[in-house]
Design goal:
The protein is α+β, with helices and mostly antiparallel strands and 91 residues long. The chain has a single domain, classed as K homology (KH) domain (GMP Synthetase, Chain A, domain 3, 2-Layer Sandwich). It has helices at 2-6, 15-27, 56-60, 65-80, and strands at residues 35-41, 44-50, 84-89. It has a 3-stranded mixed β-sheet with strand order 1-2-3, covered by helices on one side. Helix 2 runs antiparallel to helix 4 (65-80).
């Protein structure tokens, strides 16, 4: 049951994907360019985030603090829903 809520198979965005999209779209200058894809590897949901090239620095933040906070948020959201997740930032 918990695994179904983390996978994107329901036709709607999973809670993990929704959290990442909302937060990242609030951070960037071009929210329409934000894309989050979801896959599963070894029981862990992998979220792949891509943005416009000029917005990547805003997502990463100074010394990687923003992306570290995002990864923590993803891990805690996944844990709350009974699973594991990881955020990958793609160029």
């Amino acid at each position: 049951m918990a695994d179904d809520s983390l996978s994107g198979d329901t036709g709607t965005a999973s809670p993990l994907r929704a959290v990442v999209e909302v937060v990242v779209r609030a951070l960037v200058d071009r929210p329409e360019a934000v894309s989050v894809s979801e896959s599963e590897r070894r029981g862990t949901v992998i979220l792949a985030l891509s943005t416009a090239p000029g917005d990547m620095g805003k997502v990463i933040g100074r010394q990687g603090r923003t992306v570290a906070a995002l990864r923590t948020l993803v891990a805690l959201t996944a844990e709350k829903h009974g699973g594991r997740a990881q955020l990958d930032v793609r160029d």
